[in-house]
Amino acid sequence: MNEEYQQKINGYKEDIQQNIDQEAVLQTIKNCKKTFVQAEDYPLSYMEFLYDQMQFIQKRWWILQGCLLAVLWIFLNDAADIYEMQRLMGAGACLFAIFLVPEIWKNRRNQAMEIEGAAYYSLRQVCMARILLFGFMDLLIVTAFAVSVAFTVRVSAQMFAVNFMIPFNVTGAICFRFLYCKRSESEYLAAAGCFLFMILWVFIISREEIYCKISGAVWCAALILSIMYLIYVVKRSQSFYGKIYEV
């Protein structure tokens, strides 16, 4: 049986070799070299590269984030007291950050990192481009949400920073901390870690005896530390991103 298949394979190889037009092959190689040289002479600028990366990002995650904040705004308007508003904002901030996970992990999930690593821009630049695009769009969405909440729900800037920005920063840091984890299931671990933190945060906010004992200076320090740690894990994820795979 194996000999029969081997004979068929050898016959197929002979047919292919007989039908190959060597001149056409050489012409194709010549054209490919010419196209490659032209592309090297006029590489994409980084802004053009960012625009191209925008095309690969699934816009549904930004739409879902916007819908989440719209629903959160509705619930804030109907909240019975300030403590319920604090719990809603904390849970909403964590869920808002969790929507980052599917898109940032997309290249690892689809096993496309080797292809991206062979591109003109490095894998670190590809990943940073997506982070910049997501960060910029999320900043616009959160800014619009903060302005609408400030004028309609009458939430102070301090309350918004403590109850939305701190959990958002910490949840985002958890996502990026697991991003440079070599475990294949790191995407699910990141989501699980974010949900656990959301439960812990809502528990702390729900306990009035704990929440009221934390001074404004402590909350301000926590906000600054959360921003610094988020920046740290993002930079570290970039430093270690090239070590996750082997080219």
- The Cα radius of gyration reads 25 Å
Largest sheet: none
What kind of oligomer do you see?
A: single chain
| Strands, total number | 0
* Average residue-wise pLDDT: 75
Structure in words:
Keywords: Membrane, Transmembrane, Transmembrane helix. The chain crosses the membrane at residues 60-76, 88-105, 131-153, 159-180, 187-204, 216-234. It comes from Anaerostipes hadrus. This is ABC-2 family transporter protein. The chain is mainly alpha-helical. The protein has 13 helices and no strands. It folds into 2 domains: 1-41; 43-242, no CATH class. The chain has helices at residues 2-19, 22-41, 46-56, 60-77, 82-98, 100-104, 106-109, 113-117, 123-152, 157-179, 186-206, 208-211, 216-241. The longest helix is centred in the middle third of the chain and has 30 residues, at 123-152. It is elongated and about 85 Å long.
Brief write-up:
The chain is mainly alpha-helical. It contains 13 helices and no strands.
Comma- or semicolon-separated keywords:
2 domains; 13 helices; about 80% helix; about 0% strand; transmembrane; transmembrane helix; membrane; ABC-2 family transporter protein
